[in-house]
Write a structure and sequence with these properties.
The protein is α/β, with parallel strands linked by helices. The chain has helices spanning 12-16, 21-33, 50-53, 74-92, 123-126, 133-149, 158-168, 192-202, 222-227, 245-256, 274-279, 295-302, 315-319, 331-339, 348-358, 364-378, and strands at residues 5-10, 38-43, 62-65, 96-99, 114-119, 152-155, 175-177, 208-212, 236-240, 263-266, 283-286, 307-310, 324-326. The chain has two domains: 5-181 and 363-378, Rossmann fold (3-Layer(aba) Sandwich), CATH 3.40.50.2000; 186-361, 3-Layer(aba) Sandwich (Rossmann fold). Helix 10 links the parallel strand 9 (236-240) and strand 10 (263-266). The chain is globular.
């Protein structure tokens, strides 16, 4: 039996973020807990949201850890996560600390605790126009400080590795690539009863294409809305994500172009309903201008959907050669690509099967086992 090693994980996003970084952390923590020889301690400045935290069940080798009473104010929590956490981890006997969302505590390199950091994207440097200028400065400073603290740097895609090396001045051999895993709930198709319940709950159209993710300008889902005018009238678009200013911009376009009956925006959709929403769609669209990876593409493919995405970042890396990709400003090309993957179109099923074979490289246990091997190698 291998010697048990103590691993600290940054759990702030695990308990607070519903998608993206939160999903990455929850999936990885659950998968790591299934590997023998790891004792996991998840450090978070507070308990966050119950529905998110409870997706990572505490067990014999997995526990959540929070700051003591001295760090209960917002400023105190921020200080604890950026620096104060180090002494707590030393007391807990942590051997390796993994920053799951591109950050490491200041000064941890001097503490004797080995460190790994996962960097998901550098969009704030590559496309600063999508961020407030103050945030760009803060994120950039944290990125450069993290590079100085990290013993090992992990990128979630070839695209992100290229950005780290170029924008951070890092040699390629210092950066490992460990692809993100897809959550377990996207492994099995919902049964007919679940499908009908979800269809009735949201009043879904008989035929729709689906988009899931943050509704923001960078995600560019308005391109798919504009494509509707070139698609059959019985095809609708369902957009899943929280309400934002960009969602208001989409609704304005919908009103101006009389697309009320063909565009549906769903907010506050629970995770358990997502597999059914995927499964009933004709296709999945992901028109984002820039991503670090694009996990919703893999979720869609695993549940049997063809994918149409955009060129310009890493989406071809996520979806593989049998998904379709268009220019992020070309709604005519988007419409044409969608028309090639709708139900009844020749070659649709073959495209799905080839894509499903491609995304097997992102199976759940792959990332966890590679990280477990990395932790042991560092010690």
């Amino acid at each position: 039996m291998e010697e048990c090693i103590k691993i600290g994980l940054d759990a702030k996003r695990i308990v607070r973020n519903g998608t993206g970084l939160g999903s990455y952390g929850r999936t990885l923590a659950n998968d790591l807990a299934d590997i023998d020889g790891l004792d996991l301690m998840l450090y978070s400045p507070d308990k966050g949201r119950d529905n998110l935290r409870n997706q990572v069940a505490e067990r014999e080798n997995l526990h959540f850890c929070y700051p003591n009473g001295l760090y209960q104010t917002p400023l105190g929590k921020a200080f604890w996560r950026s620096k104060g956490i180090i002494s707590q981890m030393q007391h807990d006997g942590i051997q390796v600390y993994h920053g799951l969302s591109g950050e490491l505590p200041v000064g941890i390199r001097k503490s004797g605790i080995k460190t790994v950091v996962t960097i998901h994207d550098l969009i704030f440097m590559r496309h600063p126009e999508y961020y407030h200028s103050v945030d760009v400065k803060i994120y950039t400073r944290k990125f450069r400080q993290t590079l100085q603290e990290a013993d090992r740097i992990v990128a979630i895609s070839e695209c992100t590795k290229r950005d780290i090396c170029e924008l951070g001045g890092i040699e390629p051999e210092r950066v490992d690539i460990i692809y993100q895993s897809c959550a377990h709930r996207f492994s099995d198709s919902p049964d007919n009863r679940q499908l009908w319940q979800v269809r009735d709950r949201y009043g879904l159209a008989d035929r729709y294409i689906l988009n899931v993710g943050s509704i923001e300008q960078r995600k560019n889902v308005l391109l798919a809305v504009k494509a509707l005018n070139r698609l059959p009238e019985d095809v609708s678009l369902v957009i899943v994500g929280r309400h934002t200013r960009y969602a208001d911009e989409i609704l304005h376009y919908v009103n101006e172009n009389r697309l009320h009956d063909r565009v549906q925006i769903l907010h506050g959709v629970p995770d358990d309903d997502l597999p059914a929403l995927y499964r009933m769609a004709d296709a999945f669209v992901y028109p984002s201008r820039y991503e670090g990876f694009g996990i919703p593409i893999i979720e869609a493919i695993r549940l049997g959907l063809p994918v149409v995405a955009c060129t310009g970042s890493c989406l071809e890396e996520a979806g593989g050669p049998d998904s379709l990709y268009v220019n992020p400003d070309d709604d005519e090309a988007m419409a044409h690509a969608i028309s090639q993957v709708l139900f009844g179109v020749e070659g649709r099923q073959r495209r799905i099967e080839l894509s499903q074979d491609y995304v097997k490289r992102f199976e759940n246990t792959g990332a966890a086992q590679r990280f477990a091997d990395l932790y042991r190698e560092m010690l």
